[in-house]
Write a structure and sequence with these properties.
This protein is mainly alpha-helical and about 425 residues long. The chain has one domain: Growth Hormone, Chain: A. The radius of gyration is 20 Å and the shape is globular. The N and C termini lie far apart (about 45 Å).
């Protein structure tokens, strides 16, 4: 506890807490359709492929909204950007409550839900912006633990849908959004870690850099896998094992909570042992775990145990990825984080659709698990291939922060990123 208090004193704790709440409520809203999928499917008589499409749309839309919000935050400030987004989320929820009455309207609602998925990069940058480099992994892990909002959604939304009707849950979400808005208004302050002289070309340089795309692929496994499977699991449990709609949400909550909690652990492990080392273990665990899930489709207990283990690894991987991002792009973390989050979350959009198509056309979900296990294995090979070019250039051995980076002033040039490289990238 003493070490944690020392950590909090190195930055601005109220902003960290406000960013956590903002991200938690956004995540909760983002996966509402997934949490209520058994109810929605019953109302509109959806096929497995339609169900997968319904669940993919909010994830893909959220991914596409992330980068524009990240760029906006660089110009109007991260605190103001969060308030703009939360206002849009509330409006979107009310539109869902009043106008969703067909499958096409449901898909349109999925696009609106995607607004909530845009929060990630800005929340991370807002919460960790006042903390030094050697503590950013833990700070981002704490903010990222707002993923627990997905667990809250799959736990609370099904009983509410059963009691009030699934459309009314949208209205409840709109009212609840006042809580994080108040926290941001009264508790958060704008960090000063962004270079005010950085031009648009410098801020967008990560788009054309190899490292930006490499991190995006890694994040497509860790966060994409997390959000994609969270959205799909209520339907999977209900259809594959015949459990009730509420029980399907409760089982999904176990995995979602584990993934959210381990994000903090992943950030801490990465600060201590290095993000590259942590990601190596994570990707290997995910590849093996998902492959085993494909072989365990006949056992509810074994599937749940395996999924809890997979989600623990995915959560730790999310924390590890964003321990490395501010080290690689210290002056444009919000934009780089949003771009990586955007492309990574697009990977999550593939999960429900792929699983639904596997069930409808191949007769089993096992092939969907096999596909994503192979994806994780390929990403592990990529990570190990690139690590030698990262170590010593902008990160220390294993993916730890350089001591020089930790002590550098906010306006200093990022270690190992030469001006020529930035100019070439831009």
């Amino acid at each position: 506890m003493t070490h944690f208090r020392k950590f909090l004193r190195t930055g601005h704790a109220p902003t960290l807490f406000a960013a956590f709440l903002y991200f938690a409520f956004s995540c909760c809203t983002w996966v509402l359709n997934g949490a209520m999928a058994p109810f929605i499917s019953e109302s509109f008589h959806l096929s497995p492929a339609q169900k997968g499409l319904m669940l993919s749309v909010p994830i893909i839309a959220g991914a596409l909204f992330r980068f524009p919000l990240g760029v906006l935050s660089q110009y109007i400030g991260r605190k103001r950007a969060t308030l703009v987004e939360m206002s849009l989320i509330s409006v979107a929820m009310l539109l869902g409550f009043f106008f969703v009455d067909s499958f096409n309207a449901l898909l349109a609602m999925g696009v609106l839900l995607g607004v909530a998925g845009a929060s990630f990069g800005v929340a991370m940058s807002l919460g960790s912006g006042s903390f030094p480099a050697e503590h950013k992994g833990l700070a981002m892990g704490i903010v990222g633990a707002g993923n627990v909002g997905t667990a809250v959604a799959v736990l609370i939304a099904p009983p509410l849908a059963q009691w009030l009707g699934w459309q009314t849950v949208y209205a409840v979400a709109a009212v609840a959004m006042a809580i994080p808005m108040a926290a941001v208004i009264f508790m958060a302050r704008e960090p000063t870690d962004i270079d005010p002289h950085a031009g648009l070309r410098e801020q967008l340089a990560c788009l054309v850099e190899r490292d930006g795309w490499a991190f995006s692929l890694i994040y497509a496994v860790t966060f994409g896998g997390f959000i994609g499977f969270i959205s799909f699991l209520p339907s999977y449990y209900h259809d594959q094992f015949g459990v009730s709609k509420v029980q399907a949400g409760q089982l999904t909550m176990l995995t979602a909570f584990m993934g959210a909690a381990m994000r903090i652990v992943g950030g801490w492990l990465s600060d201590r042992f290095g993000g590259i080392n942590t990601l190596t273990v994570v990707l290997a665990t995910v590849a093996v775990g998902l492959a085993c899930c494909g072989l365990a489709t006949g056992s509810l207990v074994l599937t749940t145990v395996l999924l809890v283990g997979c989600f623990a690894a995915l959560g730790a991987g999310n924390g590890a990825t964003y321990q490395l991002v501010p080290l690689r792009w210290p002056l444009t973390t919000a934009v780089a984080g949003s771009m990586i989050g955007e492309l990574g979350a697009l990977g999550g959009g593939l999960v429900p659709s792929t699983m639904g198509l596997a069930r409808q056309y191949l007769g089993t979900y096992a092939w969907g698990f096999a596909f994503f296990a192979s994806f994780a294995l390929g990403t592990l090979v990529l990570l190990r291939t690139l690590q030698s070019s990262w170590t010593g250039k902008w990160v220390a051995a294993g993916g730890r922060a350089h001591a020089a980076v930790a002590l550098a002033p906010a306006h200093a040039e990022p270690r190992g990123v030469a001006p020529a490289e930035l100019a070439e990238a831009a």
